[in-house]
Amino acid sequence: MPQKYKFTPAMREISGFGGAYEECCRRMLIAALEWLDGHPEADPRFTGYSNVYDVIDEDNEDAKALSKAACDAAGEFGTTGAMHQAVISSALWIKTHGWDAYLERMTHPGGEVGILKDKLARAEEDAARAWSRVEELICENWKRGAIIAEQVLGWNRYKVSNSQQKAYAPSQQAALEDIPLGCSLYKLVDDAIAEMTVESEAA
Would you say 15 and 22 are in contact if contact means Cβ atoms under 8 Å apart? Predict the structure, then answer.
């Protein structure tokens, strides 16, 4: 028997998380709709909470049966409260308005290309946030290294080679002769602390 409910590549996601998570939501929704088709007299009732998205209560036996049908379709993947609410809300909306209306509502105006552009835009935003965090960590590590170099090791900043660039080191000679090109401050600090630890254990 051909499946009545089919998602198209141009449809937006139920969850917005993509991958196996979204596939699970879609399986759950199809199962919920098939349960409603098989129980046309059912009147599932649920109660939600203001400003709480991932918790809904089943108010009658029909609601419990509908939830079970949806959650059973998740299989080994399991369900979350957010999944459950999103799927049940969608199923009840479709029960009232029909699948064709849902299809129209969820189809991106730009079609499949529009969906891909949205995914690319989200990926670029995620990459920008990740790189921003990397830069923050680099800055934090440098500041931490500078504090340790100055206040713990007693180092100063000296010119490196004949350039105007300066680096923390125990002496001018060390800055000129002992610091490898491109070596990070926190690497120098870590090496110095490691050497101090060895000397302390040997004493």
Answer: yes
| Residues 80, 84: Cα–Cα separation, whole Å | 6
d(CA 33, CA 3): 11
Residue 61, C-beta contacts closer than 8 angstroms, at least 6 positions apart: none
pLDDT per position as a tens digit, 94-117 = 999 999 999 999 999 999 999 999
Domain membership flag for residue 2? no
Provide the residue range defining the domain that includes 32. Answer: 19-107
* End-of-domain residue from the set 74, 107, 140: 107
pLDDT per position as a tens digit, 152-178: 888 888 887 666 678 888 888 877 777
Cα–Cα dist 98/95, whole Å: 6
| Amino acid making up residue 148 | I
Longest dimension (CA), the chain: 88
Q: Which residue reads 């917005």 in tokens?
A: 16
Percent of the chain as helix, strand, coil, to the nearest 5: 60, 10, 30
pTM of the model: 0.68
Of 96, 110, 94, nearest in space to 5 by CA? 94
Tell me how far apart the alpha carbons of residues 21 and 80 are, in angstroms, rounded to a whole number: 10
